[in-house]
Design brief:
Aspartate Aminotransferase, domain 2; 7-stranded mixed sheet; globular
Length: 387
């Protein structure tokens, strides 16, 4: 969380005073207005506000028709929720390498495509844009859906187009650790009417047919889904946070550029697929050896700056995805996609060292967070310590 204050307090007060706390109402309609404002901000046709980025990923996959017998390619470096979203549909995740940008390696993505591949999930982790030109070209060549996981890159862009709007659908997260936040929350965006309609039905199948006119103009048949519905509190907070998105990103990017300029003669950084579109949340140092990365992190910690090696971030590294690596896709084995007959023979031969390139890259990187509120004097002091 970067910036939150009186505007959000006033928004919550507005909802309480209205007494219309439920999403569907005849009053302020905060959730509906947020979806409209998000569509305008991103330039997409459809948007659905829901409980989390995970909910958005799962709803999008359902919208794409992903299910048993399908493979979905995910990068080896992403939060476990990306892979769990796949198993939630009855499909199985296929794990591909990251490249020097620490995002999905397009070459390994193409190598992992099989006759069972239904979708790929490029993840713009830490606000780093993926190589979307190559990923989209490969996906189009093989008839594969592209679902962008933009959960850590709210508002970022690639070659002038907002992340999450380049593929067939995109998923965002608004939890506490994201660029903009309501504590928890997420959104699915797409220009595809079918993905939108199925996502709408799936994400709130217990209420859409009962409350309001949510099914007006919907041609997809109703089916049983789940409940990822949010209250008006989430919608109201996110309307205020959305107003702050571009100013936050502008300050993050400015401060990241300033630090990189100050330190570029001393340190190397990871490759970027679009440094201007990068969200600017993270200064990603890159070293020739793991020993150098460890030494840098130790000194950064001593200096009070702090640093994190991505290899040490637990569930963001595929080898720590315990339920995936151990193929326990559900509590009841009859619901476990790894045990489905349709999924036998698919690419689920997981091992801790299956993506050695990714592990090597992650071990040689160190992240230092960027503060959007530091002034030039603060940045100079930070740069001096890092030097």
């Amino acid at each position: 969380m970067y910036r939150i204050g009186q505007e959000e307090i006033d928004a919550i007060t507005r909802v309480i005073k209205s007494r219309d706390l439920f999403k569907i109402n005849g009053g302020a309609k905060e959730c509906m207005h947020f979806e409209e404002e998000l569509k305008e901000k991103l330039g997409v046709k459809y948007a659905l506000l829901m409980t989390s980025g995970s909910a958005a990923l799962t709803s999008a996959l359902i919208g794409m028709g992903v299910g048993p017998g399908d493979e979905v390619i995910v990068p080896a470096y992403t939060y476990i929720a990306t892979a769990i979203a796949v198993t939630s549909t009855g499909a199985v995740p296929v794990i591909a390498e990251a490249d020097e940008s620490l995002t999905l390696d397009p070459d390994d993505f193409e190598k992992k495509i099989s006759s069972h591949t239904k979708a790929v999930i490029p993840v713009h982790i830490q606000g780093f844009p993926c190589d979307m030109d190559r990923i989209r070209a490969i996906a189009k060549k093989h008839g594969v859906f592209v679902l962008e996981d933009a959960c850590q890159s709210d508002g970022g862009s690639y070659k002038g187009k907002r992340l999450g709007t380049i593929g067939d659908a995109g998923a965002f997260s608004f939890n506490f650790f994201k660029v903009i936040t309501s504590g928890e929350g997420g959104a699915l965006v797409t220009d595809d009417r079918t993905i939108y309609e199925r996502g709408l039905i799936y994400h709130d199948s217990s209420a859409i047919a009962y409350f309001g006119n949510q099914l007006d103009g919907i041609s997809e048949a109703q089916f049983c889904g789940t409940e990822f519905r949010v209250s008006e509190f989430t919608g109201a907070i996110m309307r205020e946070q959305l107003k702050k998105l571009d100013p936050i990103l502008a300050d993050l990017r400015r401060n990241k550029r300033y630090l990189m300029d100050k330190l570029g003669d001393v340190y190397g950084f990871i490759k970027s697929n679009d440094i201007d579109g990068d969200c600017g949340t993270t200064l990603p140092f890159f070293f020739d050896t793991e020993k150098e990365a460890l030494a840098f992190k130790a000194k950064a910690d001593e200096a009070g700056i702090g640093g994190t090696r991505p290899i040490d971030t637990g569930k963001h590294v595929y080898s720590n995805w315990t339920p995936i690596m151990e193929k326990r896709g559900a509590f009841n084995p009859k619901f476990d996609p790894f045990k489905f007959e349709e999924n036998q023979g698919l690419q689920t031969d997981y091992s801790a060292d299956m993506c050695k390139k990714t592990l090597d890259l992650l071990s040689r990187a160190v992240y230092v967070g960027v503060n959007p509120d530091l002034d030039e004097a603060g940045l100079d002091a930070m740069a001096a310590k890092l030097r």
